[in-house]
Amino acid sequence: MEQRTLGKTGAKVSVVGLGTWQLGADWGDVAEPVALEVLDIAQRDGVTLFDTADVYGDGRSERLIAKYLKEVPEQRRPFVATKMGRRMPQVESNYSWTNFVEWTDRSREFLEVDTLDLVQLHCPPTSVFSNDEVYENLDRLVDEGRIKNYGVSVETCEEALEALEHEGVATIQIIFNIFRRKPLDEVLPLAQSKGVGILARVPLASGLLAARYSHETEFGEDDHRNFNRKGQAFDQGETFSGVDYDDGVRASREFAELARELGPADATPAQVALRWVIDQPGVTTVIPGARSAEQARGNAAAASLPPLSTELHAALEDLYDRYFRAAIHDRW
Known about the structure:
- The chain is an alpha/beta fold and 332 residues long.
- Helices cover 38% and strands 11% of the residues.
- The strands form two sheets. Strands 3-4-5-6-7-8-9-10 form an eight-stranded parallel β-sheet.
């Protein structure tokens, strides 16, 4: 699989990574043997970056990764990015040195490593991004050897632009997909110019871009696609990228038709959606999740598709303009 340099970390990582929120919580139950199989299939198919967080299943995702990595030779060990900050009330004062030490020590214990590859602030309050003391404390974590690199995971492009003004930030993680295009305006060009890596999350708009859902599809009570559609539990943009579900279903059907007519032969809509993200200048890696080995294998295969045609890119921009630009472009 194609490898790209992950910003200021200097690490080479696959253009398709694996997001492991699904293996922790909020997407329905994923049994441990299935979760371990997902990690194994992804890694065997060329994925060299796993993205997790201390809050995914209150550490379950990190522990599963650690259990899997015990069976992986050191030379094949993937880069593991984790996140911190969402296990406490979301107020700026909680982003302190004391808590940073506690949070990173917990992740080091759960992942069973001395030094974390990458720690990302996990969508903290907006004011945190302009707090110089926060970055000084992150630098201190690096100096003390608790972490190798740090980055931020953001909800809005404005937060990303603020973070990009701080020299120590190695990576930005941001929602970016065919239905959520605003990062193309400023964030991706600026990150590229500063040598900062981009991890593109929610690339399938919580599954809409797989084009398998209908207006009648029901999701489990413990699935955020049920309980967070209006932002009841966390930022609404994390669920279906913030688009209205019924509009998303209609747009996904049109997207599937375009993918079939103008996309690479035999590619699924989900693979076309992932390839679209990979094609964008400035993106280092796209991190779809997977709840099964089949999904993991299909996601990894997107990396082997040829770049999408100019005609398809134009048609997808038009799709966004018609369905979503007015409703969401200025919100995130």
